[in-house]
Task: inverse folding
């Protein structure tokens, strides 16, 4: 019971960590793995996996486009629960493609459930939480602008998932299958 409470407290604290601090901690973890295992290739592969799935944390440009500003607002106005909804909606949507047949099974009614939840969230974000910014993007009449804004939402959803140690470990699990001999061709002079 005590271990369970400690774990919940640790998870709550991890969720409160700012994204830039999470990225620093992830980099520190990669360096630690490199030092512990003494194998630069394993560390490199883990870093590559983190880089591929973790968006680069760069400060916003001084004059962000309306789409970027809307994306930032949408990301800031979501809760952890909202981000999990976005991640689940993305997974269910991707699982609907024929390429995922046999990999992920979506139960009947799940897609509609997450579509409804996403519609409610998107309406709240555009109409209630970020109305001035969404108005500016609507005036552009450009679907690409909404894609840019939506990318920010997808990024924070993935960051939310990767705060879970199990998800982070699963992401780097492929490293044990790398052919380290093959990498010698590109790592030795």
Result:
């Amino acid at each position: 019971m005590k271990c369970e409470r400690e774990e919940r407290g640790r998870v709550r604290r991890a969720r409160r960590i700012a994204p830039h601090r999470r990225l620093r901690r992830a980099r520190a973890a990669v360096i630690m793995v490199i030092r512990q295992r003494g194998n630069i290739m394993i560390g490199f592969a883990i870093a590559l996996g983190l880089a591929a799935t973790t968006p680069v944390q760069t400060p916003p440009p001084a004059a962000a486009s309306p789409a970027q500003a809307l994306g930032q607002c949408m990301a800031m106005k979501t809760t952890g629960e909202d981000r999990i909804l976005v991640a689940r909606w993305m997974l269910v949507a991707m699982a609907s493609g024929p390429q995922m047949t046999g990999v992920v099974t979506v139960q009947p009614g799940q897609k509609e459930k997450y579509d409804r939840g996403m519609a409610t969230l998107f309406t709240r974000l555009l109409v209630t939480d970020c109305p001035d910014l969404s108005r500016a993007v609507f005036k552009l009449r450009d679907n690409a602008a909404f894609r840019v804004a939506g990318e920010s939402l997808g990024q924070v959803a993935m960051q939310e998932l990767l705060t879970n140690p199990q998800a982070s470990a699963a992401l780097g699990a492929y490293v044990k299958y790398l052919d380290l001999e093959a990498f010698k061709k590109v790592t030795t002079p």
